[in-house]
């Protein structure tokens, strides 16, 4: 059968996952397309998972992307009230789908199927939507503690949603704090990289107390964005934010060894590539108010190749263990 919106790789993944319903296959293919189009690092890492697990990751990403698009895009002319209404409608469709009711929206259908198949706690999706609603009203955070409360729903729960799909070699609750920390580390990395783009959306995610500790503030960021001029206070604040983010990566690191061996290459590659975004921002002179830094394509290819090698080793080890059993 042909899956609209997907090629041979999509079909291979869906077949491996045992997804045979035509409507579901289209729903998962749509989610995969969103991942491929918008989540470059995330999608590259996902390719290192066993094919049977990839559709679930695409579904989780696709739903998160759909909610994010409602908050940030939605045609570019929607009012805050219209975006809030669209987000409420999405949550209503999600609740219906999680309760077993049929829904038409592809990303919601794929997400509900994944949540049921991997027994993902529904509250994790609701907490995510709470933070998405905050983005419609909150434009800055006074303290890092306030930002961490926001990131519970916007980032930590993403790591917790992923954990049942990835699998663990320890009791899941032992790995959960590290999975949550990794989600937070990834989002903090985005905040350091995307200062200018966030300003254009009317938001400052770097906490005001962190900025103030280096003599910076929202108005200074806006001035720098508007004029294209640099300021040492902003440079100092961004370097401090990157150091804080590195600390969160260290919180997350012990969780890598707790994952199912066949999932480790995927997460390790994302861990390395996202961490190197901070290196890219530093190399660019901490100029993320003005430009979006990226890991060079050649370096991404090197990390991906190393991941492929680890995948082969993990599968060989799994085959040996199966043979010994």
TrEMBL record:
InterPro entries reported for this sequence: Isoprenoid_synthase_dom_sf, Squ/phyt_synthse, Squalene/phytoene_synthase_CS, Trans_IPPS_bact-type, Trans_IPPS_HH
Superkingdom as given in the UniProt entry: Bacteria
Keyword terms: Transferase
Pathway where it operates: Carotenoid biosynthesis; phytoene biosynthesis
Coiled-coil region list: none
PANTHER family, per database record: BIFUNCTIONAL LYCOPENE CYCLASE/PHYTOENE SYNTHASE
Protein name as it appears in the record: Phytoene/squalene synthase family protein
Taxonomic lineage from the root: Bacteria, Bacillati, Actinomycetota, Actinomycetes, Kitasatosporales
């Amino acid at each position: 059968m042909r899956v609209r919106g997907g090629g041979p790789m999509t079909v291979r993944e869906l077949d491996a996952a045992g997804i045979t319903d035509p409507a579901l296959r289209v729903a998962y293919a749509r989610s995969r397309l969103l991942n491929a189009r918008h989540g470059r690092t995330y999608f590259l890492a996902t390719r290192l998972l066993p094919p049977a697990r990839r559709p679930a990751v695409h579904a989780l990403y696709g739903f998160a992307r759909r909610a994010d698009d409602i908050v940030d895009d939605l045609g570019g002319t929607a009012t805050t009230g219209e975006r809030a209404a669209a987000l409420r409608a999405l949550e209503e469709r999600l609740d219906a789908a999680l309760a077993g009711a049929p829904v038409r929206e592809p990303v919601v259908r794929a997400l509900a199927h994944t949540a049921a198949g991997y027994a993902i706690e529904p509250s994790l999706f609701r907490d995510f939507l709470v933070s998405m609603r905050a983005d419609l009203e909150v434009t800055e955070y006074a303290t890092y503690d306030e930002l961490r409360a926001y990131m519970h729903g916007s980032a930590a729960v993403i790591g917790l949603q992923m954990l049942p799909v990835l699998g663990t070699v320890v009791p899941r609750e032992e790995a959960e704090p590290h999975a949550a920390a990794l989600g937070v580390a990834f989002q903090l990395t985005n905040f350091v990289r995307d200062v200018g783009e966030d300003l254009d959306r009317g938001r400052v995610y770097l906490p005001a107390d962190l900025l103030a500790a280096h003599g910076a503030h929202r108005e200074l960021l806006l001035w720098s964005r508007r004029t294209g001029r640099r300021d040492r206070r902003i440079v100092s604040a961004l370097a401090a934010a990157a150091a804080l983010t590195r600390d969160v990566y260290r919180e997350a690191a012990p969780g890598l060894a707790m994952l199912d061996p066949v999932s480790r290459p995927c997460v390790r590659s994302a861990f390395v590539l996202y961490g190197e975004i901070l290196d890219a921002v530093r190399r660019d002179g901490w100029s993320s108010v003005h430009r979006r830094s990226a890991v060079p394509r050649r370096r991404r290819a090197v990390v991906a190749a190393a991941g492929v090698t680890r995948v082969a080793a993990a599968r060989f080890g799994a085959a040996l263990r199966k043979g010994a059993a």
